[in-house]
């Protein structure tokens, strides 16, 4: 429990003492509120489950074997106490324990409570088994989506260099240690997964709920979902604060967008000073069928376009790299956010 020794208040003015006492009391009230919210068997089970995976209400009802109104009431109390976080995804809402980097009272207490739960408890073991079944169902849905779209994706993949070669180069160009990685237009979540061993926290943003479902299944199967999360969002209005990320990626996304320059401005807004942006997309080409059959709005981008947008967004362009394939050339454009002292 957080304590505040009154000896620490010596030498402070009356106003400062009053302020510090109020802060101390506020902290203790928050702890008591969180403990009160967690003092129920089902809510402890929910904490244990959500520490392993991000889940919807109907998935939690399936695991817990309880009605939706009852589960929703438990979730509301846990969120109000800061023990869980809720994120919207269109008409859906997902729940999970706070991310590992969070230092809020609710986040720290949530981690302590989950760690104290006995791993051999029969009820918790049954919950974990049901959670595994839910994740298998997710994976099956993702596989069905892949099968339905595999022909189109494979046709495009055959035109450019192996994705493994692109990923290797990205790892060489990307930061060695990442505090907060944001992957815009995350799709299958693959770029989040590629950098997962280097990132303390990663967030994938996508407008397609179908693709987010695929990404959620992929990250869960890869066992890297613990410090990664997914959010439904528009790339022109990203639901994240300014200067909150030190690494942002846009991997094969810009050619789908009606206003690529606006997406780059939003990516630049997210970067903290000195942070890195990497855009991966196609160099200019003339494969018109990609526009007609695969919804590509742009047939690649020139250096002048991308580097011009970088400068307009206040970024410092790096040296572009090109990986030639059979019919398409993949271009990698790095950039850096200006440091404050510059």
Structure description:
The chain is of the alpha/beta class and 342 residues long. It has two domains: 124 residues, Arc Repressor Mutant, subunit A, CATH 1.10.10; 180 residues, Vaccinia Virus protein VP39 (Rossmann fold), CATH 3.40.50.150. The chain contains twelve helices and eleven strands. The strands form two sheets. Strands 4, 5, 6, 7, 8, 9, 10 and 11 form an eight-stranded mixed β-sheet that branches. A three-stranded antiparallel β-sheet has the order 1-3-2. The two termini are 43 Å apart.
CATH homologous superfamily of the largest domain? Vaccinia Virus protein VP39
Low-confidence stretches: 1-9
- CATH classification class of the largest domain: Alpha Beta
Reported for the largest beta sheet, the result is:
8 strands, mixed
* Total DSSP E strands: 11
Assign a percent range to the helix content: 40-55%
Mean pLDDT: 85
- Structural class call reads alpha/beta
- What order do the SSEs take from the amino end to the carboxyl end, as H and E? HHEHHEEHHHEHEHEEHEHHEEE
Examine the secondary-structure arrangement and name the CATH architecture of the largest domain.
3-Layer(aba) Sandwich
% residues in beta strands:
15-25%
CATH topology of the largest domain: Rossmann fold
User: What is the distance, rounded to the nearest whole angstrom, between the alpha carbons of the first and last residues?
Assistant: 43 Å
Count of individual helical segments: 12
Write the layout of secondary structure elements.
Layout: H1 14-38, H2 41-50, E1 55-56, H3 57-64, H4 68-80, E2 85-89, E3 92-96, H5 105-116, H6 122-157, H7 163-173, E4 181-184, H8 190-194, E5 202-206, H9 209-221, E6 228-232, E7 245-251, H10 260-270, E8 271-282, H11 289-294, H12 303-312, E9 315-317, E10 321-324, E11 329-337
Parallel strand pairs: 4-5, 4-7, 5-6, 7-8
Antiparallel strand pairs: 1-3, 2-3, 8-11, 9-11, 10-11
Helix pairs in contact: 2-4, 3-6, 6-9, 10-12
């Amino acid at each position: 429990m957080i304590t505040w020794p009154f000896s620490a208040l010596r030498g402070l003015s009356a106003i400062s003492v009053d302020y510090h006492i109020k802060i101390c009391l506020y902290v203790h009230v928050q702890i008591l509120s969180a403990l009160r919210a967690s003092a129920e068997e089902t809510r402890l089970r929910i904490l244990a489950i959500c520490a392993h995976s991000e889940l919807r209400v109907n998935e939690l009802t399936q695991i817990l074997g309880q009605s939706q109104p009852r589960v929703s009431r438990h979730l509301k109390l846990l969120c109000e106490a800061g023990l869980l976080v809720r994120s919207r995804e269109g008409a859906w809402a997902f729940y999970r324990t706070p991310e590992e980097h969070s230092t809020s009272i609710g986040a720290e207490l949530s981690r302590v409570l989950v760690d104290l739960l006995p791993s051999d408890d029969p009820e918790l073991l049954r919950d974990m088994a049901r959670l595994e079944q839910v994740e298998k169902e997710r994976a099956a849905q993702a596989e069905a989506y892949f099968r339905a779209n595999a022909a189109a994706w494979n046709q495009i993949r055959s035109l450019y260099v192996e994705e493994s070669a692109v990923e290797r180069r990205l790892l060489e160009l990307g930061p060695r240690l990442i505090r907060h990685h944001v992957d815009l237009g995350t799709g299958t979540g693959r770029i989040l997964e590629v950098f997962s061993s280097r990132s303390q926290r990663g967030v994938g943003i996508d407008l397609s709920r179908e693709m987010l479902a695929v990404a959620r299944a992929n990250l869960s199967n890869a066992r890297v979902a613990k410090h990664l999360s997914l959010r439904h969002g528009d790339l022109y209005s990203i639901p994240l604060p300014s200067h909150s990320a030190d690494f942002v990626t846009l991997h094969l996304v810009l050619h789908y967008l009606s206003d690529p320059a606006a997406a780059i401005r939003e990516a630049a807004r997210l970067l903290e000073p000195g942070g890195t942006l990497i855009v991966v997309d196609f160099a200019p080409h003339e494969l018109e069928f990609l526009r007609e059959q695969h919804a590509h709005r742009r047939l690649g981008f020139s250096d002048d376009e991308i580097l011009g947008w970088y400068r307009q967004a206040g970024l410092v362009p790096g040296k572009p790299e090109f990986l030639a394939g059979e019919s398409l050339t993949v271009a990698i454009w790095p950039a850096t956010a200006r440091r404050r002292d510059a």
